[in-house]
């Protein structure tokens, strides 16, 4: 995996994000003091889960030669009683029978980001001078 690096962007909380050769922006909306110049960190986290789910479903369906034409994945994150609660909705488009649909819903939980989020996470922080 390529390293992700951030540094201050222009604006109160804006961050310039670099992933390999890709340039992204992250910020918070005006109600939180930002300028809404990019998705918030939590929105990127939701995007990671949604896009990983979609990719995993597409790879699996392609391997099986199933008629999955599209998977529309929506993820919302809320914080309730100190718990981050992810709500994921999946709409499967295509010629799929009930068994295929059920299997794809099982496969959704096997995407690597889903596994990372429900597993044990360790964060090691080092100060560089």
Provide structural commentary:
The chain is an alpha+beta fold and 129 residues long. The protein has two domains: 1-39; 41-118, K homology (KH) domain (GMP Synthetase, Chain A, domain 3, 2-Layer Sandwich). Helix content is 33%, strand content 33%. It has helices at 41-64, 98-108, 112-118; strands spanning 4-8, 15-19, 22-26, 67-80, 83-95. The strands form two sheets. Strands 1-2-3 form a three-stranded antiparallel beta sheet, with no helix packed on it. It has a two-stranded antiparallel sheet with strand order 4-5. Helix 1 crosses helix 2.
Outline:
The chain has 129 residues and is of the alpha+beta class.
From the alpha-carbon coordinates, what is the Rg to the nearest angstrom? 18 Å
Q: Class by helix and strand content? A: alpha+beta
**Main beta sheet strand tally, sense and closure:** 3 strands, antiparallel
Indicate the multimeric state.
Answer: single chain
Q: What is the helix fraction of residues, given as a range?
A: 25-40%
Q: Looking at the structure, what is the overall shape?
A: elongated
CATH architecture descriptor of the largest domain: 2-Layer Sandwich
